[in-house]
Prior knowledge:
By secondary structure, the protein is mostly helical. Helices cover about 85% and strands about 0% of the residues. It has a domain at about 30-100. It has helices at about 1-20, 20-30, 30-50, 60-80, 80-100. The mean pLDDT is about 90.
Amino acid sequence: MAHGRADEDLLARAAIFCDHRGMNIFISRHIKTIEMTGVLMRVFSFSLVSWMGPKSPFMFVWVFNTTDAIMLMWCSTLKRDNAYMVLNGFWILVGIVGILRAGNILH
Length: 107
């Protein structure tokens, strides 16, 4: 019966991620860690482009950079930090264009 309880706990935790309120609570509890992770992801992606130049894996860099922008946007939204909401919103849009260009969908 203990196994069934573990499955229920796992499903309950998964449901939290499907519910924005639950996700907001999770992010709020771990906001400093998520922000630092997002910033380090941004530093890594731009460092990769700086080091590798034209040989950079641009699709990876754009997906990685857009992911960190989404993470940082969510954090800045919860903190109601308008300046960083605009900045990360801009990076999300730039990232979408970068992904489309790296995928040869937009020329």
